[in-house]
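Protein 1 of 2
SEQ + STRUCT:
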Amino acid sequence: MGVKESEIQLIFDAIISANDSEHQEDWIAVDGKSLKNTLTNYEQNGQNMLVIVSGFSLETKLIIKSKTFESKKSSEIKQVQ
């Protein structure tokens, strides 16, 4: 409670960077999910909702990066790039 998502992401990124030097040829699976509980009216098209995109290491079986964004401001492809 009271912790900003951006602060957690910085710490998470630092931990992964410090421990990922040996996994240079790892395959990364990418997937995005819409967080439906951020919708206010399920019947209305084109709503703005929160989406999370994650990169998953097939070698270590760990999520190596995740990012949230608003669906009207960005896309999964932009976040992955």
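Protein 2 of 2
SEQ + STRUCT:
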Amino acid sequence: MAGEQVLVIDDSPTILKVVQLVLTKAGFKVFTATDGEEGIAQAVAGRPDLILLDFVMPKMNGYQVCRALNDSAQLKDVPVVLMSAKGDQVGERFVKVMGIVDYITKPFSPEAITAVVQHTIEKYRKIADSPPSMADGSPLTADRTEAARVDAETVGPELSAVSSDEGPALEGNLRSVPLAEVLSLLAAQRQWGVLTVARGDERGRVEVCFKAGRIELALASGLGEEFLLGRYLVEVSTMSRQDLDLFLESRAPSTRTGKPIGEQLVKMSYVTDGERKEALIRQTQERLFELLRWPAGRFSFTATRELPPLAVDAALGLEIDGVLMEGFRRVDEWHLIEREIDDFDAVFLRNEEAVQNVGRARLTREELAVLELVNGKSTVKEIVRSSRMASFDVSKMLFRLLSIKVIRRRVAPVAV
């Protein structure tokens, strides 16, 4: 193969130089860009045969670049290979998302990057030369990736689509079809309806309500106390946790109206309607971020204009792009955290000498709050419950405290 054009988009000058040198020696014409905006401009100027893309970059991240490519009739069929610095933990999650067809782990050898580029270009040249396997007009079709085609040949029984204005329209397995791809598809087609996602271990269930491709609300069951609305109301308003607890305790079964707590608190002037909506936005986003971490489960989308009353009342109108960008960042960060905190039943001890050396004044308020709950007895799960913070936030604080060695994991004694 000679003369094929490869565009490399990465904010690391070292990576750009190394990849350009290696692929040029292999006979490719290599162009480089240091951020997403520059990369898109170069791709428009001269359509490449392949794009090598870093995910974490300034101005535009990898997902935003893929969205822009997908919106371009000239570039939507260009295959994209992700260059991941976090190994296959990150790479596997982005393959099949918005045209990312493969990934390679940094650092990589010259032989590895050359082999990936050659294989991908050959594969997609054959696909382009072969007749299309799907008739135009399929009700649910992703533009950019071969893996997103909804037909029996490419997906098999894991994903099925039904052409219908009302009723079940899409269902599948999260192991085979990433949730981000499903969300992007529903947004791109401006769908109305409810996407139901059930975790593989049946410990959680979320219903994402769509109106014209935007998220109106995410209803959930079995996710735990940290995802209840009360926590977010306390965060976004002047209402204290003590006041909320007193309100909840005062609600005798005989006096309960069945109305949502947020609506009751607004009516009783504990919070404003704006604060309630802001809390609902935070709650829905956090629930979606949690969904993106689920390794297994089933999903089904029911097309309907009759959304649940709570979703109609909330009318959040959240854009998918913003949710996915933050969600991907969190997934990436979670993988780093889980290397140190891989068990929510783990127990940590304070290193008082290290705390004195570091100085409490150098710790953030959130770090100090979590540090006070580290007592050599409480598990991570119990710290999350006591702190009234999200498990992501508590784990992030513990990870930081571990990195500066002011806490350490408690090791069970070994019998001699």
